[in-house]
Amino acid sequence: MSDNNTQQQGNAVQTTGHAWDGDLQEFNNPLPRWWIWTFYATIIFSLGYWIIYPTWPYANTFTKGVGNTITFQNDAGEEVTTHWNTRSLLIKDMQTGEEATKQKAYLEKVNAASYEEILSDPDMMAFANSMAKVVFADNCAACHGPGGDLPEQAFGLYPNIADDAWLWGGTTAEIEQTITHGRNGYMPAFGKNLDDEKLEQLANYVLGISGHSVETDKAAAGEKIFQGQEGGCYYCHGADGTGLKSQGAANLTDAVWTVANVPGAVKEEDKVAAVKRVIKNGVSRQMPLWKSRLGEEQIKLLTLYVHELGGGK
Amino acid sequence: MKFRFAHESIEINAGLLIALTLVVISIGGLVEIVPLFYIDETIEEVEGVRPYTPLEQTGRDIYVREGCYTCHSQMIRPFRDELLRYGHYSLAAESQYDHPFQWGSKRTGPDLARVGEKYSNEWHVQHLEAPRSVVPGSIMPNYPWLSETALNTSDIEGKLRALKMVGVPYSDTDEEYQANVERFGEDAAKMLDIHTAEENLIAQAQAGNYDGDRSNLTEMDAIVAYLQLLGSLVDFSKYDEGYFAEFR
């Protein structure tokens, strides 16, 4: 440090002429040449920029830029030319940009093809999957989990759509309907009409028809409520308990649970309690509709993606 | 030599230095800000945009209070990748009643300008109370107190009056009410009436049942009502894309 100081003082460096505390001086080194020239260059650049791009406000408008226009097509197919602005630039980019046109070519193919045709064409499926994955992550993953794999904590709130069991149906037409128009999964709460004993009996019956070992006399009593007017469960879940797709009523005979957290329960009595809770409190879940947010092609791609997630049914 | 002398006289005179600094800075400020008061051709003429209802405005105040804007912007920019992710770019008209606006470029979380109607109310409640219970990798903080804190509805009249002073057309007199009926329709105009603000706030919260619990009004009701509105007022299918470029 001190060496450095003496060395500099040895050179004849210009100072500002100020002196504080007797000997404290301020160097007045010129700025490096490259810096100065770059600085002048930016000023000249800005002059050009002012002329070519919209910049200066005046009165109640602004300068629009000279010789710098953008031409695009409006909905009616007419050519429209405007001064340079980011909105026109975006429209043009969507119409003629390299990425956009590449994507559009695929989207048009997807649009024209039927679900069966796309499903049997590996090239189109590869495109559908890669694009749908992104759309799914942006719009669906917050509820259904990344890649349709539901996080454990969200069990019961949202259905797992990566499995093979469908509430509203797993054909492409049914999935498309689900995504386009949304769904309301609704089951009334039976806590008011049925006492605890009856809920217990029903839970035993429901667990029984999906292959769990249960107390048979309770299950038999539960069956009567399930199939009779008192419970009326058969009305939505079907007499055989396999569910009703038009109502989004779950299949109770498979080992897949969407609301009642049976898989998370270890002991038999906890499983009964989980099922009881659902019958007591009912279910009200809402799948939003997407037709106002996503385009037809996007919904089609998502349908294919979800269809494949569920193993294709 | 002369120049150096003048320079020194500024540098050693703090008062003069401050005064001249202010002059130089305000030139930039004036050139950038003043024209904004005159250029109104950049605000798009679109149907549907209206001031916030008392409940939504209350939710908005909670949004600002909690600092949600430190991670979330509300401004979708006119680029292809933003369009694909979030939807139509934001219009100036859509934030014309925002004081202060929530634009910004700091996006720790996603842009929220079009989050309205994207998710269910239940999802918002769950996500605000405990984001990681629905989005495992989320770094958004928990806001459990929103569901526990009773909604303060008593100061809404004052808030609307303050906003009216800066130009938001909440109605105080009969004429203003009639003007709102013409401009926004009868249902909306009722919601913008300052005198019935508290009633309307409570009624909307109860009817909407945003937090899933009708027994009491909480801050969660208000913030979810606000989030569900964001970006949903303009029906873009009614407009030719080129139309919006005319306002640039």
Spans of at least 5 consecutive residues with low confidence of chain B: none
Note the main sheet of chain A.
2 strands, antiparallel
Structural class of chain B: mainly alpha
Structural class of chain A: mainly alpha
Share of residues in strands of chain A:
5-15%
Instruction: Name the assembly state.
Output: heterodimer
Q: Report how far apart the termini of chain A are.
A: 78 Å
Reported CATH architecture of the domain at 186-286 in chain A: Orthogonal Bundle
Tell me the Rg of chain A in angstroms: 35 Å
Under CATH, the homologous superfamily of the largest domain in chain B reads Cytochrome c-like domain
Number of strands of chain B: 0
Give a brief outline of the structure.
The complex is a heterodimer of chains A (313) and B (248). Chain A is mainly α.
Structure in words:
Helices cover 48% and strands 11% of the residues of chain A. Chain A is mainly alpha-helical and 313 residues long. Among the domains of chain A are: 97 residues, Cytochrome Bc1 Complex, Chain D, domain 2 (Orthogonal Bundle); 101 residues, Orthogonal Bundle (Cytochrome Bc1 Complex, Chain D, domain 2). In chain A, the strands form 4 sheets. Chain A has a two-stranded antiparallel ribbon with strand order 1-2. The longest helix of chain A has 20 residues. Chain A is elongated and about 105 Å long. Chain A starts with a helix and ends with a helix. With 248 residues, chain B is mainly alpha-helical. Chain B has 2 domains: 31 residues; 192 residues, Cytochrome c-like domain (Cytochrome Bc1 Complex, Chain D, domain 2, Orthogonal Bundle). The radius of gyration of chain B is 22 Å and the shape is globular. The N and C termini of chain B lie far apart (49 Å). The model of chain B has no long low-confidence stretch (mean pLDDT 93). The chains are: A mainly alpha (313), B mainly alpha (248). The interface between A and B is large, with 48 and 39 residues.
